[in-house]
Specification:
Elements lengths: L2 H10 L11 E4 L11 E4 L4 E4 L1 E3 L5 E3 L10 H15 L9 H10 L9 E2 L2 E2 L1 H13 L7 H5 L2 E4 L10 E5 L5 E7 L4 E6 L3 E6 L3 H4 L2 E7 L1
Antiparallel strand pairs: 1-2, 2-3, 4-5, 6-7, 8-13, 9-10, 9-13, 10-11, 11-12
Helix pairs in contact: 2-3, 3-4
Length: 216
């Protein structure tokens, strides 16, 4: 088997392509300084996606708008308010601004099996890029490889922000990976909706949970 074919086969094993049934509701949070415009729940799991945020003047901006400086006080305040609402925590709990800035810049990028750019990306490539750019750690390319680079956590309630969350296919094989955030929420590249935040409390993901892992 040629090297190119072998690489393609490995890439195909990195993410599940299982179909996800979509549903959508909407809500608003008036207590978060006006930064949340429309919060929708979509997917077979209770998946949260922030469709847009509001500027100080009230005009909508796209989720992926890039703020000039990651250390800017106003940017940090806005980012904390946005993700505190998504994760149902206090703004003070959003401490790693580099992590949430990275998520913010990639949020909504479409899923593409084997992809590794903002034109399209799969689950393990997203985690690989996140770890390299946020934590300065190089991970291997596929979910099967990444799980071997962690200290296993079988109980999801023991997870901490930055731990990897692994899911299995119907055959019991590790086929999907995400990054644990807070309050049982994790960020990942969904095969149906791209980069998004989902909850381990949802039945869809709960029954597919294989293990978590802390990167060694």
């Amino acid at each position: 088997m040629g090297v190119g074919v072998l690489a393609f086969v490995i890439t195909l094993s990195s993410c599940s392509t299982a179909q996800e049934i979509s549903k959508q509701t909407a809500g608003q949070n008036a207590n978060q300084g006006g930064f949340l415009n429309q919060l929708s729940l979509r997917g077979p799991e209770r998946t949260l996606s922030l469709k847009s945020v509001l500027t100080r003047s009230g005009a909508p901006e796209p989720m992926n708008s890039v703020i000039s400086s990651p250390t800017d006080t106003e940017f940090g305040t806005n980012l904390r308010a946005k993700y505190a609402a998504l994760l149902n925590v206090l703004p003070q709990a959003i401490c790693n601004l580099a992590l949430y800035r990275f998520i913010d810049e990639w949020y909504g990028v479409r899923y593409q099996l084997g992809g590794s750019s903002k034109e399209g990306i799969d689950c393990s490539a997203f985690i690989q890029k996140l770890y390299e750019q946020v934590f300065g750690i190089s991970l291997l390319r596929t979910a099967l490889m990444q799980v071997e680079e962690t200290s296993r956590i079988k109980d999801a309630t023991k997870c901490q922000e930055g731990d990897l969350i692994f899911f299995k296919s119907r055959k019991g094989r590790i086929s999907h990976v995400g990054l644990y955030l807070k309050n049982d929420f994790f960020v990942h590249a969904s095969s149906s909706q791209g980069i998004m935040i989902s909850s381990l409390d949802d039945a869809y993901w709960g029954k597919r949970f294989a293990c978590a892992g802390r990167v060694l």
